[in-house]
Design goal:
Two copies of one chain form a homodimer.
Chain A lengths: L2 H11 L3 E5 L2 E5 L25 H5 L18 E2 L13 E7 L11 E3 L2 E5 L6 E5 L7 E5 L21 E3 L2 E5 L4 E6 L5 E6 L14 E3 L2 E5 L10 E6 L5 E6 L4 H4 L17 H4 L17 E4 L4 E5 L20 E5 L6 E6 L15 E7 L2 E9 L4 E6 L5 E6 L6 E5 L4 E4 L10 E5 L13 E2 L6 E6 L1 E7 L13 E7 L6 E7 L4 E8 L8 E3 L3 E5 L4 E6 L5 E6 L9 E5 L2 E8 L7 H4 L20 H4 L5 E6 L1
Parallel strand pairs in A: 3-34
Antiparallel strand pairs in A: 1-2, 2-33, 4-40, 5-6, 6-7, 7-8, 9-10, 10-11, 11-12, 13-14, 14-15, 15-16, 17-18, 18-19, 19-20, 21-22, 22-23, 23-24, 25-26, 27-30, 28-29, 29-32, 30-31, 32-33, 34-35, 35-36, 36-37, 38-39, 39-40
Chain lengths: 620, 620
């Protein structure tokens, strides 16, 4: 299918009924393929309760929320039902807490036992709030000695995507590339591991995943000429047990005899070297700053690697493996089991760090073990998680830079008209560099079988320029100017049917929806907006049920927990991140190329949101 | 009366019944003189509704709150009754807004018409929030071009005590000593006047008072060797119409033929020169950074001047006039009508900037026009506001540095044992430098006849050292170390009967109560704590009726307004100020003398509060 056909087809799928509700456009869509869509409520085998394994079982307790993604599978689904689509309009503010910071807050509040834990943006303070006491006072706080230079190597605000609690430890990463474990009861430092070198542009913004005694940590810095990696640290000592590089020879990538990618083209030796010109792989980017999920049954972790560096693709002919690649690895050894490159020779910063939600679902008549992946390149992938086969890759947003995914070869088909060229400005490339969805994680409800996707609708003008590598300094090679995509709205909160492969309902938002999603067994989905609204919508219809305006913009991850038999919903408010850097970083709206071109699309944000860092807890 | 007798007598007056309520000590006191205390509900002639004059009448509208003190009289009393002592427990968070700053917030939210206006700490952003719209979006915001050097000459955090709305203009001061008028509808700059010179240590933190076409502005900087002043600017042009210095020859102080102080000793010519050694008056401090109130009938403004500089009294023998002095002046010309020096030759930084609440009340059988003044030196003054006569000066906290006020001479009697001496540490001087009450304004209810006083209970060790004057740098000459006073609690929220001259009820708080007070015709009094609790208590009994934990500590001024027939209560949360500098300024708890010795008393604050800047609006 050609690009235009693909777009026409996608638009055709969405018979869009537009209804103006309270100043917003609520878009209700019905897919052509609805007939194919069997609701998964009865058949889905995912969700907290079905996961085996010691720590998995522990976290089946819906009263807690011990990691940003809720469960190993990354569903962000809670079985709690006290707050539901019949009473959510009665939610009120139960408590608040000021983080003491004013930069973009992307983390999720974490609840383990009777304590809530929060890690802030740089300088990465950690707070433990006592849920048993009136006003949730601070039980302890921890302030890492900050390495201020790390702010200079953060491409997109100084965010942190959250901490994890495991085995009585609070484990988190700092912008200056340390992984730190604290005693969850006292805040006492247990170990500190310097995992990266900020002088080479390595920073860490992602939330670690702890699984089978390993703390899985990946690096940020694809705009600074790093050589990307994922590491496995020993949970007890902090010692680095394994390092998997994402470029270079197979032995560095931890590709060995058990590596069985689905597509034949990926079976050639040392592709991490041969798909790059000369020594470019040594500074080829491909970090891992997004989400890692885990299937306890197959004992595999899943995560995507980031964009190749520099952005300008003309200086790195070849597929640039293993950038923008989905890896399945053994958590204990890091050994690669399969890999699939989502965006070979990434032309547009289609960084592949998005989440892989672990779900068992029916597919063409049989039950399959799949990954659900709304990728940054704009396609919603359904992947066989045992083999790495692409079962489906349908667009869930407006795309003109590529024309689809060839399911025979697994290969993304680029539109040559939109290729980035040095010294020439290519206009109206869609999606823009942050993709149809960036890091902001989707949620999956086994009750509705739908994936709730917060995302953006942006296009861009793109011009390649000659990049120069100087260690630890920006290494991008592309000038970008972003703006709203078709329709003029910059954000969407959509419900996607992964079986029927279509949007079920869609809410248009003026600003990019840069927050994560939460969905509960009360059939309510939650998300936030960059101008501060925290919203609850009916998980089946998308109807807005409730909203509250928080103090700053929301770009973080909502969660829910229970204490003493009562359900609470919590979210952090604090605008920033790449999309909100104009406010959090105080950037000048006149500089269109600031924040890698995002500022141009967000010139009105300073009138709509103020800097902040506030926890909100809601209850009935 | 000697010091010890005075203290014994004061303690005797308070027959203290202690009751532990929810972890707090609620102290109920009954004064010996209760028989003298006629409740003022029927006779009080103050309050918004009784004030003549164009703009006064306008602000009788209890739906608005156009200046921090509510009315010209500074009562901080609202006639609104929807929220009252029967239903206040049902208050909930209606809305929030992040100020985008993280330093101490001392301002009051201001409501004029259907807009709420807020000025933040340095860099002194101004926000106009639209009350007519869902979520109170920002109508406009204004960011002054900041002069960062001004942070260096702020003694005690970079606070701002609020803006005023008058005649369609928003008028406020900036830390870097500018007074700025904006169009209240659009935020457009109307005029900017540089009123002080930060290179000489002049900053401005106070809220202006606008009266009769004059914008009254005073200077901060008593710790930097400034020569203090109050200015009257033309409201329309911003032009400085008059400047009244607080030291120097009479002509500079605007003391002329109409100057009629009550006490004969104040009638000598040029006391602003003769009560200082040599040229010391030129760098003698005595700014005006607190409250200005106004009696429209007598056409007099009332305000107190700040401490003499440097703190070390041995380098400035004499009364150091007109430091620590209450002035009555004509607003249009600045002409002094009377003056009364509260703390002559101020030994302990008993800065006299506290408020003068304008009240008509019965006194020994006749109705008197008085000022109610809970002074920093620890005495609650009842002053005849026509003449400057001290009618009463009773201690409202623990005092051992002075032994009382001689009502014949009006003179404060110092305890020579507690005199500050160079090279010697005098221990256990009470109250400490911030006094029994600092800037945090009390409220007065004409219904109960009581004054609601938020204050602290601190003592100090004090050592004089040789100060050196270098323009624009700290010039203090005293090392101070503060700690909790008798009883161990550091704060109090008291109801004082100005007729009976005794405490009616008293709430002990662990931390200094550094917020202002609000009282309403619903017989509820509101205040905040430095660990973030916003509290409502019964105005007659002091019983705690409701509390909510805000995100940061509260050191600001609560207010109330109505929109569309509904009553709201608003307060800003953001710890800091002198008392909270350890958090707002990130000071090291190991340095006891930091923040002029306040840090020593607040070493636990970082465990109890985090930096912030958040508006909270509450409603039923």
């Amino acid at each position: 299918m050609l690009a235009r056909e693909r777009i026409r087809s996608a638009l055709h799928h969405w018979r869009i009924a537009i209804l103006v509700v309270g100043g917003l456009l609520l878009v209700s869509c019905k897919g052509d393929r609805e007939k194919e869509s069997t609701r998964l409520a009865l058949v889905a085998r995912t969700g907290p309760a079905t996961s085996p394994g010691d720590s998995t079982t522990r976290y089946a307790d819906d009263g807690q929320w011990v990691r940003p993604g809720k469960d190993f599978q990354g569903t962000r689904f809670s079985g709690l039902t006290e707050i539901n689509n019949q009473n959510v309009q009665n939610l009120h503010v139960f408590g608040t807490f000021s983080l003491g910071t004013n930069r973009g807050v992307e983390a999720a509040p974490i609840v383990s036992g009777t304590t809530m834990y929060i890690v802030t943006p740089f300088p990465n303070y950690v707070y433990a709030l006592d849920l048993t006491k009136d006003g949730m006072p601070t039980k302890w706080s921890y302030k890492p000695h900050p390495v201020n230079a790390s702010q200079g190597v953060a491409c997109c605000d100084v965010v942190n995507r959250g901490l994890v609690v495991d085995g009585g430890k609070v484990i988190f990463n700092t912008l200056d590339a340390r992984t730190i474990a604290l005693d969850a009861a006292t805040g006492k430092e247990l170990w500190v591991t310097q995992v990266g070198n900020i002088n080479l542009g390595e920073s860490v913004t992602m939330a670690p995943l702890v699984v089978k005694g390993r703390v899985i940590v990946g690096v940020s810095g694809g705009e600074f000429g790093i050589r990307g990696w994922l590491k496995g640290l020993d949970e007890n000592s902090g010692k680095v047990v394994w390092t998997a590089f994402h470029t270079g020879p197979d032995k560095d990538v931890l590709i060995g005899s058990n590596f069985k990618p689905f597509y034949k083209s990926d079976t050639v030796k040392d592709l991490g070297v041969s798909t790059w010109p000369a020594d470019q792989w040594k500074i080829g980017g491909a970090g891992a700053w997004g989400w890692v999920t885990y299937d306890p049954e197959l004992d595999l972790i899943y995560y995507g690697t980031a964009n190749p560096g520099p952005w300008n693709p003309e200086v790195r002919p070849g597929d640039n493996k293993w950038s923008a690649t989905l890896f399945a690895r053994r958590p204990e050894t890091g050994e690669a089991i399969w890999a699939y490159q989502l965006s070979p020779h990434d032309e547009h910063d289609y960084d592949a760090v998005n989440e892989d939600i672990v779900v068992d679902m029916p597919w063409k008549g049989q039950q399959r073990k799949v990954l659900l992946r709304p990728d940054r390149n704009g396609y919603f992938y359904v992947m066989d998680r045992q083999t790495g086969e692409v079962l489906s890759a349908e667009p869930y947003g407006f795309i003109n830079t590529t024309t689809g995914v060839d399911l025979k070869t697994g290969r993304l088909q680029y539109n040559p008209e939109k290729a980035t060229r040095t010294g020439e400005t290519v206009r109206y490339s869609c999606p823009a560099a942050p993709g149809v969805k960036d890091w902001q994680p989707a949620a999956y409800s086994p009750r509705t079988g739908l994936v709730y996707i917060p995302h953006q609708n942006l296009c861009m003008d793109e011009e390649g320029v000659e990049p120069n590598y100087i260690a630890g300094t920006p290494y991008v090679g592309t000038n970008v100017k972003m703006y709203a995509g078709p329709g003029g709205h910059r954000g969407l909160f959509d419900a996607w049917d992964p079986v029927g492969q279509h949007i079920v309902w869609s809410i248009k938002e003026d600003l990019p929806v840069w927050s994560g999603a939460l969905v509960t067994a009360g059939d309510v989905a939650f998300y936030g907006t960059m101008d501060g609204w925290f919203k609850a919508v009916d998980a089946r219809s998308g109807k807005e049920l409730w909203k509250f305006k928080t103090g700053s913009g929301i770009i973080s991850q909502p969660m829910t927990y229970s204490y003493n038999g009562k359900q609470y919903i919590a979210v952090l408010s604090g605008v920033g991140g790449w999309s909100g850097a104009i406010v959090a970083g105080g950037l000048d709206a006149r500089d269109s190329s600031a924040a890698l071109g995002f500022v141009n699309a967000m010139k009105d944000l300073p009138q709509k949101s103020t800097k902040g860092g506030i926890l909100y807890v809601f209850a009935l």
